[in-house]
Amino acid sequence: MARVVLEHLSKFFQGPNRENIRAVDDLSLCVEDRELLVLVGPSGCGKTTTLRLIAGLEDLDRGTISIDGSVVNSAPPKDRDIAMVFQNHALYPHMSIYENMAFGLKLRKYAKSEIERRVQDAAKMLGLSDCLARKPDAISGGQRQRAALGRAIVRSPKVFLLDEPLSNLDAPMRLQMRAEISSLHNRLGATMIYVTHDQTEAMTLGKRIAVMHHGRVQQVADPMTLYHNPTNMFVAGFIGSTPMNFFTGTVVQRDSNFAFQETNGNGDIPPDALLVRLPDSRAAVLKSCLRKTIVLGIRPEHIRERQQDNSEIPIKGMTEAIMPLGSETFVRASSAAHSFMACLPGSTAPIANEPIELAFDLRFAHFFDAESQNRIN
Fold first, then answer.
1. What whole-number distance in Å separates Cα of residue 351 and Cα of residue 363?
2. Final residue before a domain boundary, out of 201, 223, 238
3. Where residue 330 sits, what CATH number does that domain have?
4. What is the pTM of this model?
5. Beta strand 245-254 with 257-262: parallel, antiparallel or unpaired?
6. Distance of alpha carbon 29 from alpha carbon 210, whole angstroms
7. Are residues 259 and 339 in the same domain?
8. Each residue of 116-155: pLDDT tens digit?
């Protein structure tokens, strides 16, 4: 397998008025040998373009791509020793699954015995041995996706590139295929770069994840680091199955204590605005932001119902929607200036359009600079 190094990649496309649209912007990234790295971000962030640049399907405007120590900027796709799996299975409908998987090897003039061995080994690995004689329309969507993976596996390439390969499958099949791809990576010991817009898919698959936005990498880290220590508001809001809540406000001093005071879009303090006392560990850092506009970020699972004997200042809100999911209940509520989500135990039974008192677990809160949107450490 191989190490992939991307240095200062940039790619421009021409807009309708001949203006340059920057799809990838000065991107640098290193994918280690045998690593499964996930590129994740919203539609249009440049993740698929990055994958196509690595594959040689798009021409670079700037930067360097190295695979296994060799610069491949000018190498055609067939000479880069990569295999790509697309969102569309791209199987030939008139060929059997065996013929689809063997097709690339036949073009490269491998011996029949070698083709037979590789296809049979890949089919066994993917649970397709009983499907090899069938045509693509005679097998399930999950089997077609495994066949597309098998066509890549038989090549034994240095690098696997997977471009949203599960997006056309239903939810249960996606869950199954995620587990199969993770297991496949462990068995092959392969270098894989996996593109998805689904942050749950990224969190469950990636050893490391590169979060992209507007053609730039925002943060590269393991899943738990991204979740607990996001570098900016974009990463904080994108990572997590229910997005982080954000409250704009200021740091104020109350006697010898510091607190976060909610404000509205104009910077004014509305009636009944939430006021959250800052723990001493946070106050030491945030007192330098006194009277500056900052953003408090907190995840729904770190908002709980306030106990009656709790000495904390209550977070008073009005429930807007109740979403019971069995083991937990999501509540959308509104404060004086913001709407937010809370994740409460499934036994909780709040009522819509009624007042509710909540408490924030500020041990897990994050604070961001309102202008730069970077986390305040």
1. 28
2. 238
3. 2.40.50.140
4. 0.89
5. antiparallel
6. 9
7. yes
8. 999 999 999 888 999 999 999 999 888 998 899 899 999 8
